[in-house]
Design goal:
Layout: E1 10-13, E2 42-51, H1 72-86, E3 90-92, H2 109-113, E4 119-127, E5 131-140, E6 145-146, E7 151-156, H3 160-176, E8 184-192, E9 199-206, E10 213-214, E11 222-227, E12 233-238, E13 245-250, E14 255-258, E15 266-272, E16 278-285, E17 288-295, E18 303-304, E19 312-317, E20 323-328, E21 335-340, E22 347-348, E23 357-363, E24 370-376, E25 379-385, E26 393-394, E27 401-406, E28 412-417, E29 426-431, E30 437-440, E31 446-454
Parallel strand pairs: 2-3, 2-4
Antiparallel strand pairs: 1-7, 4-5, 5-6, 5-7, 8-9, 8-31, 9-10, 11-12, 12-13, 13-14, 15-16, 16-17, 17-18, 19-20, 20-21, 21-22, 23-24, 24-25, 25-26, 27-28, 28-29, 29-30
Helix pairs in contact: 1-3
């Protein structure tokens, strides 16, 4: 199996757009805070025009299942709409009547104000045989001014969905001030077959569930995929040899290499350091599980970081590469601990309700939060806390929620939910307020996801 060549999108910064009216500085610029949730989404209007003869785009570069739209402008508008509304921060407004709007003409700010729309996106789509070119700009209606420079995205024809995600990323970042996350991919474990003979294989897909590609064979039971910081490599745990071992796969070529080969030790749950030079993982020998570390370039030189009779597992790097969070039952129940990257100075950080166990920690790429799974008699839920254990918040109340991982901007999480023991698992996303939960790839049974970095 081989993935197509990475998509290349040319981004041309172009301050080519002139504000139609004098700036109204008395109005505050648009701004959404993502720390407390939004009760009323911001109304945004989209105006996307086709230029010339538009020919339907082909399948995406990441998958073959999607049907390309006959109307490319409408397809791009639909992707942007889904991206923005999926955040819970925006609603796409379609006022009737609405002011006449043409991309290359001045914006009727007064007319748009009467519709209560707060931001306007205008764009044009032009296509030739092999490529598309999209120009877009964003306007703050109440401040009567452009919100940032106009931009032009040039992409292969089959990359129209990624171009739409790029525009969504610009809109999201300019209004919220946060880093974007729409043009990214997610690795996951696709599940099929009966519970007694479950097939689990690694797949990758766009962040919104489109363009699924399978990377491993149905005959190879696999778990715990994790991207390298640049997204070019995927680590996972394979049971192909009969003993769990860690594999490294080149995502572009789908060529896999075994990083651990000890038949007397189970190696699993890998995580790559932010600089890509180290891999921390769990190793079980003679009934005891500890945290280990190995150089990416020389995996045979592995070093043990934790020692003792407890079960230490599920390590996750801090974004500065100086510390590692992991779960351990050294206190009697599974709790979260943070240690230096050399294994020294372990410190317990979870002290929740009695009878609750904490595990599967994932350090936010922003460094300000650690996500975790909390287990109790009533099931398992997803929560977040600061790296010192303070300010704990539970984000979900599912019967069986597990395996959280962060979007590249550290403001959204993806996790696995299983409604009942015998029900197929699915993936959901939730923001750090816990108020906006969305299904991801709802038609596929999937679990154990890992969110990759933004695509170049």
């Amino acid at each position: 199996m081989k993935l197509s060549a990475p998509l290349r999108i040319g981004v041309v910064l172009a301050a080519i757009f002139v504000p139609a009216l004098a700036l109204a500085q008395q109005d505050e610029p648009l701004r959404i805070e993502i720390t407390e949730g939004v009760m009323r989404p911001m109304p945004v209007a989209l105006h996307v025009e086709n230029l010339g003869d538009i020919v339907a785009a082909g399948p995406t570069d990441t998958g073959e299942a999607e049907t390309a739209p006959d109307d490319l402008a409408a397809g791009i508008a639909a992707v942007i709409t889904a991206d923005l509304q999926g955040t819970g921060l925006f609603e796409i407004a379609a006022p009737d009547p609405q002011p006449e709007t043409v991309f290359d003409r001045p914006v009727d700010y007064i007319g748009w104000r009467e519709t209560q729309v707060e931001a306007l996106v205008t764009a044009t789509v032009e296509a030739d045989d092999d490529a598309i070119s999209i120009r877009f700009r964003l306007f703050d209606i109440f401040a009567a001014q452009p919100l940032g420079d106009g931009m032009q995205f040039d992409a292969p024809r089959e990359g129209w969905r990624r171009a739409a995600h790029k525009i969504s990323d610009q809109i999201y970042s300019r209004i919220t001030g946060e880093d974007p996350y729409f043009d990214s991919r997610i690795a996951f474990i696709g599940e099929s077959g009966p519970a007694t003979a479950r097939i689990k294989r690694v797949g990758v897909m766009d962040y919104d569930g489109y363009g699924i590609k399978w990377l491993t064979s149905p005959d190879d039971l696999v778990l715990s995929p994790r991207f390298s910081p640049d997204g070019a490599t995927l680590l996972y745990t394979s049971f192909a040899s009969g003993v769990p071992q860690i594999m490294s796969m080149d995502v572009a070529t789908v060529e896999a290499t075994a990083l651990t080969r000890d038949p007397n030790a189970m190696s699993f749950a890998p995580d790559v350091s932010p600089d890509g030079r180290w891999i921390t993982f769990s190793r079980e020998m003679s009934g005891n599980t500890d945290i280990w570390i190995m150089p990416t370039a020389s995996p045979s030189f592995a070093k043990q970081l934790t020692r003792g009779p407890s079960i230490d597992t599920a390590p996750s790097w801090s974004p500065d590469g100086q510390r590692i969070v992991f779960e351990s039952d050294r206190s009697g129940t599974s709790q979260l601990y943070v240690m230096r990257a050399d294994g020294t100075e372990p410190m317990r950080i979870s002290f929740g309700e009695a009878g609750k166990a904490y595990g599967e920690p994932s350090w936010s790429p922003r460094g300000d939060r650690i996500a975790f799974t909390r287990h109790g008699k009533d099931g398992s839920s997803i929560g977040i806390m600061r790296p010192d254990g303070s300010d704990m918040q539970m984000l979900t109340e599912g019967a069986h929620d597990a395996a959280p991982d962060w979007a590249p901007n550290g403001r959204v999480l993806i996790f696995t939910r299983q409604e009942q023991d015998d029900a197929p698992p699915g993936l959901l996303s939730v923001d750090i307020t816990g108020r906006n939960m969305q299904p991801v790839a709802p038609e596929a049974a999937a679990s154990d996801s890992a969110w990759g970095p933004l695509l170049p």
